[in-house]
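Annex B, item 7. Sequence and structure tokens for protein A, then protein B.
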Amino acid sequence: MVSELIERVTNKYKKTSIPKIKVGQTVEVSTIIREGDKSRIQVFKGLVIAIKGSGVSKTFTVRKISYGVGVEKIFPLHSPNIADIKIITEEKVRRSKLYFMRDRVGKMSTRVKKGNMLVYENNEETMGKSENIE
């Protein structure tokens, strides 16, 4: 009864034209910034590292590197301040939260890559990066 009532009240605040956002996608989120009586649109482009919640309270975390410093923003998915969400690229990930991306530096911090390849040398299995093994 109570959850049915909450569902009816929150349904009018849900947006219907939202793309399917998944962890591992690079997205551009256009947000409406209001300064006094003026408003403008600001774009935040980065990697989706987490999705939390459900229904109207669903949020997603986007991370980017700006001038060598990692910046994360948490956006409510159904917020009226989000003007547009564009999906730029999509990479296959095996985790639901990509918090390990916070420890990465340089090019590795903006791209989700496959794990280390298994390299077999002299009948020994070693983990390592292989450059030209195909």
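Protein B:
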Amino acid sequence: MNAPRRFRQGASAARAGVGLLLGVSLAVLAGCAQPNLAEVREFVETTKRTTPVRRPEPPPEILPYTPFSYTAQGLKDPFVVAAFAQEEELLGGLLVGIPTASDAEYTGPRPDPNRVREELEKYSLGSLKMMGTFRMGDGVDLWALILAPDGVVHRVQKNNYLGINHGRIAGITEQRVDVQEIVPDGPGRWQERDAFLSLTQ
């Protein structure tokens, strides 16, 4: 009969030890769940008092959109050989495309190196503007008014020249001036190219 009693006593002691262990664990957890926040609160209050208040910078000013105006209509075409360069090559007998004595077999179109240049041949065709037309004398021939980049208006008729590519006026109507240019087409060669000036340009 003593053995069962001792067993019961040992079981009771084991339960008491487990209970004690659970109690200590709960106390530790309770201490973690509710720590002493006095130091934390004091640190926050100190930081608030000692840290200067910085206001956010104002947003950058948005400037109104200003549309861009293209003003290069009257400038030289960068893809066209300048007239002075052509003149220098003419004087040296080295104008690209003009047949020399060694190119006597060439029979295609070519500019006339002896022709006296006209006033409007100083400007690229794209920098000239057609301003209108009029008739002179008997009224058969139609003349065109061409505005140069320097602001001077010139009157031209059929077979006058304008532009830097040996452009000869092939015809004039009330709406446009048809031009036949002669442009380089490889060493010692030239080709004819049609162009025009329009009253609506």
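Comment on protein B: The two ends are 127 Å apart (CA to CA).
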